[in-house]
Amino acid sequence: MKTRLVAAGVLTAVALALTGCSAGNQSGSSGGSAAPASSGDALAAVKDAGVLTIGTEGTYRPFSYHEGGSGPLTGYDVEVGRAVAKKLGVKAEFKETQWDGIFAGLEAGRFDTIANQVSITPERKAKYEFSEPYTVSHGVIVVKADNTSIDSFPSLKGKTTAQSLTSNWYTLAQNSGATVQPVEGWAQAVALVEQGRVDATINDELTYLDYKKQKGAEGLKVAATTDDSSKSAFAFAKGSTSLVDAVNKALDELRADGTLAQLSEKYFGSDVSK
Questions:
Q1: How confident is the model at residue 14 (pLDDT cuts 50, 70, 90)?
Q2: Closest Cα to residue 251, out of 81, 129, 41, 117?
Q3: What CATH architecture does domain 139-225 belong to?
Q4: Are 141 and 153 in contact (CB under 8 A)?
Q5: What mean pLDDT do residues 222-250 have?
Q6: pTM
């Protein structure tokens, strides 16, 4: 999800665009099935090739990244992509692509789908097809565990938050009446909260859950959550209906057999798949 979705009133709907991948088969590998969807049946092409080619960044922990910086490609989206490919009876082949060029790569037929925490938005739905969501997330206010003065977005009025100037959370904080201290990103923002130098920070729930999983976050808590959610899914070129339907069936099976919940718990300590 690499944009974020926030709630009603002062909470303006925005989007969360994030990442997904797998190890071994990366950019430059051959033998993939990807071709423009208009050239024929997308599912048949994948089945004939025996490969589901997936575009992803490979630099977005915990969704799509290299273990230790140079190890195998892994992450939540990576493992979901592999599990889907297995359900389709094919191999997953990942092509790592910078975010700025990932949709152009999909349109050019470099891969069959994108698994990169792509948020479903009306603008994107007009241009691409999407599977059912495999990640659902909310915006959250993070404060120190002993903070009792913040329990909603309106209660941010007169408080100080730390936000990246280019994020949608910056706008949400301002609209909630907070004084915003600009920072470069989450790491700096959460450090200021922990040090008591700001009252709060607003960010995506997945970012907080990953931090909690990695660091513990014993001195922090979620004070409030947005009503609306951001939903991320596999993205496909228009005309890929047969492949979208097959991926949806695979996701339904992975949800029913507990695989999505298991992968969620592994990376976030919570089920973010529904």
A1: very low
A2: 81
A3: 3-Layer(aba) Sandwich (3.40)
A4: yes
A5: 97
A6: 0.80
d(C-alpha 181, C-alpha 164), whole Å: 8
- Quick one: pLDDT band at residue 28, thresholds 50, 70, 90? very low
- 23's tokens: 């190890």
Sole residue written with tokens 């273990």: 67
Cis before 122 (ω within 30): no
- CATH architecture, domain 37-136+230-268: 3-Layer(aba) Sandwich (3.40)
On the question of a common fold for 37-136+230-268 and 139-225, the answer reads yes
pLDDT value of position 30? 38
| Alpha carbons 250 and 134: distance in angstroms, whole number | 11
| pLDDT on residue 168 | 85
CB atoms within 10 A of CB 73: 19
Look at phi and psi of residue 92 and say left if phi exceeds 0, alpha if psi is from -120 to 50, else beta: beta
Q: Which among 176, 195, 179 has a CA at the least distance from the CA of 187?
A: 195
Instruction: Confirm if 203 and 142 have CB atoms less than 8 A apart.
Output: yes
Instruction: Kindly list the domain boundaries of the chain, sorted by start residue.
Output: 37-136+230-268, 139-225
Mean pLDDT of 139-160: 98
Kindly state the DSSP code that residue 178 receives in the 8-state scheme.
Answer: P
CB distance 234 to 120 below 8 Å? no
